[in-house]
Design a protein that fits this description.
The protein has helices at 8-21, 38-48, 84-88, 91-95, 145-154, and strands at residues 2-5, 27-31, 63-67, 71-76, 100-104, 117-124, 133-140. A hairpin with a 3-residue loop joins strand 3 and strand 4 (71-76). Helix 1 packs across helix 2 (38-48). The longest helix has 14 residues, at 8-21. The chain is globular, with a radius of gyration of 15 Å. It contains 5 helices and 7 strands, in the order E-H-E-H-E-E-H-H-E-E-E-H. By secondary structure, the chain is of the alpha/beta class. The protein binds adenosine-5'-diphosphate and magnesium ion. It comes from Oxobacter pfennigii.
């Protein structure tokens, strides 16, 4: 599933729609270069979960927790040295817990991610424009298959 974003607000809207239909236990993996818009996407996701807090990247804390319609566990694993650090902060309890997990730089910890996940890659294309982003969403696993149809049919974007 491909969304074309022409502004930070567009990216937020796609995240917001995903947040509005997310269920507990969802694991959303985000990839893309620095400045791609991963945190922007998470801001939308939080909005869709009825979270009003100001969202910032937990680059130094690894995880931030927010409470909305469901808890949101926002990870940024850019600075971890190895996956042991993830086990130390209780990564498994989060991802198999009652909330929605979203992981910036998920590719870095690919080996410890659940096989079933939602994969969101954001990339720039300077030839199209400075604010243009390609948002590619793929789902892995049975439990997410319905989501694709829901997003295609209802994400008004
Ligand atoms: P990341 O978390 O991937 O490092 P951020 O979301 O923190 O990226 O920052 C993205 C930056 O790019 C912001 O300054 C934002 O305003 C800018 N930007 C420009 N166009 C877009 C777009 N279409 N989608 C998302 N961000 C955009
Ligand atoms: Mg970020």
């Amino acid at each position: 599933m491909l969304f074309e974003s022409y502004s930070p607000n567009d990216t937020e809207k796609v995240g917001e729609y995903l947040g509005s239909i997310a269920n507990k236990g969802y694991v959303i993996c985000l990839t893309g270069d620095l400045g791609a818009g991963k945190t922007k996407f998470v801001k939308g996701l939080a909005k869709g979960l009825n979270i009003d807090d100001y969202i910032t990247s937990p680059t130094f804390t690894i995880v931030n927790e927010y409470n909305g319609r469901l808890p949101l566990y926002h990870f940024d694993v850019y600075r971890i040295n190895d996956t042991d650090e993830m086990h130390e902060i209780g990564f498994d309890e989060y991802i198999y817990g009652q909330g929605v997990s979203v992981i910036e730089w998920a590719n870095i910890i690919e080996e410890i991610l659940p096989k079933e996940n939602i994969w969101v890659d954001i990339s720039k294309d300077m030839e199209v424009g400075e604010d243009y982003r390609k948002i590619q969403i793929k789902v892995n696993g049975e439990k997410y298959q319905g989501l694709i149809w829901e997003m295609i049919e209802k994400c008004e974007f």
